[in-house]
């Protein structure tokens, strides 16, 4: 296995953890919605998650991340269509998808250690 794979998986996990830090470990949409600084910080973490997710299958096609295409698509939207980022979509990803992704990445890291 390529040595970069664990690094990219850790990058994803750290970005998820940083989102929790940006939110002060609370899931409060109003706080998120009312702070452009928090929104931009979280968008940056989602960019990192998307970029790392896009790199993994290019190097190791046997490692699949659930919803990998959707993760990369979100990254592309944040970067290239920054003026069309929907805060409700981002919030939905934070609340519904990131906990699942975190578990999946932890499992992948555990399987390659």
TrEMBL record:
Keywords: Hydrolase, Nuclease, Nucleotide-binding, Phosphoprotein, Toxin-antitoxin system. GO terms for molecular function: hydrolase activity; nucleotide binding; RNA nuclease activity. One of its GO terms (cellular component) is toxin-antitoxin complex. It holds the Pfam family HepT-like. This is DUF86 domain-containing protein.
